[in-house]
Every structure is written in C-alpha cells, then in structure tokens.
Amino acid sequence: MTPQQTAGSYDKLASHWNDSTFDRSNGMAQHKTAFQFAARKRNAIDIGCGSSGRIINLLISEGFEAEGLDISAEMIRMAWERHPAVLFHQADICAWAFPQKYDFISAWDSIWHAPLATHEAILTKLCDALTDGGVLIFTSGGVDKQGEGTNPFLGVPLYHAALGIPKLLEIISRQGCICRHLEYDQHPELHLYLIVQKMAPLGTEG
Q1: DSSP string spanning the chain?
Q2: In 2, 65, 93, 140, which residue has its Cα 20 to 30 A from 151's Cα atom?
Q3: What is the pLDDT of residues 62-113, one digit of tens each?
C-alpha cells in the first residue's frame, strides 16, 4: 500500500481510536519506562499521533511541549478537537522534514505502516531528529528478517512492514544512538518496542 492508501484506511478507522471504548492504557507503561532515560523534558513529538490523544496527554503531563504528526486528515481533525492548543502536522513521515530537534520522540504503532523500502530512511530521520541525550520510543514487528504484508482490520486493509531486529540495531548504532531497552511486550505476539537514546558527543557528558 502507498502512504496515501494507508491514509485513506486510517480516515475510515479514525473513530475506532477516538471512541471511549478504546483502551487508552495501550503503550502508557512503556512510555513511562522511556521517560526515565530522557536527559531533558522540553519538547516532544508523537509520530502517527492518531485520534485518541492518549500519548499527547501523557507527554503534556510529563512537562513536555507536545506536537503531533499523522498522515490521516481525519485523525488530525479528531486529535485537534481534543487538543486545540497543540501543534499538529498532517504529513507523510516518509517525506516530512523535522522543523527542529526533540528531546523525546514517540512512534508507537505507526511507522510500521510506511512502505518497507522507506523504513531505513525513516528510522535514520528519527534518530537524527533527537537532541543529545534525547529519547526515541518506537514499535516494530519482532522478526529477525525484513518482511511486509497487508491484512484487514475492522474490514479495512492495513499494511505492516518490518526491517528485522539486526537491521534496526545496525541503523540505530550508525546514527550515534544506543538501544536502552528492547522488549516483546505482547508475547507470544511479535510486537516489539525499542527505547533508543542519542549519545552526546565525546567530552560533553555531564
């Protein structure tokens, strides 16, 4: 699926995550673990922010000035209704350029919907957008080798892809980051999350 097709699918599904029956605790404990590694808590962005507002709420509660990005116009519309004071970007992460560097970046259950061929560039871009000591939390398929596929969710097609753990760790290291935490948090499902931190240049620590 192209990013535009994925946006169309999420336009149709936006109300699912906006509904009061959606489990808003999803991903919260994992983010709280990631916050413990953050060197500073100034600004943060939620990539693939969706419509629920739960991660934006959490970032704000931690003292961050939060922003959100999503490719789906309907997701952004609902997100803005929940948080009219927050800056939201409707854009494709594959092509979007970060306007600044961030102390914290969340990409929870989002970037794996981008085409597989773009994953390396996206992860590189996310790592590069971190301040020194900044933290990235993101999810991926917990597989060893790259793969992709499309499956229906609530009757709507959704695409997923993953680079595989060895490639993820290779990119992270190449971009001057360290993997602080890697966990299969929904085992036996192959749902993987990683906490990554940008290393400070030598001689600047402390």
Answers
A1: --HHHHHHHHHHHHHHHHSTTS-TTTTHHHHHHHHTT-S--SEEEEET-TTT-HHHHHHHHTT-EEEEEES-HHHHHHHHHH-TTSEEEE--TTT---SS-EEEEEETT-GGGS-GGGHHHHHHHHHHTEEEEEEEEEEEE--SS-EEEEEEETTEEEEEEE--HHHHHHHHHHTTEEEEEEEETTTTS-EEEEEEEEPPPTT---
A2: 93
A3: 999 999 999 999 999 999 999 999 999 999 999 999 999 999 999 999 999 9
CATH no. for 3-14+28-198: 3.40.50.150
Give pLDDT tens digits for 174-199: 999 999 999 999 999 999 999 999 99
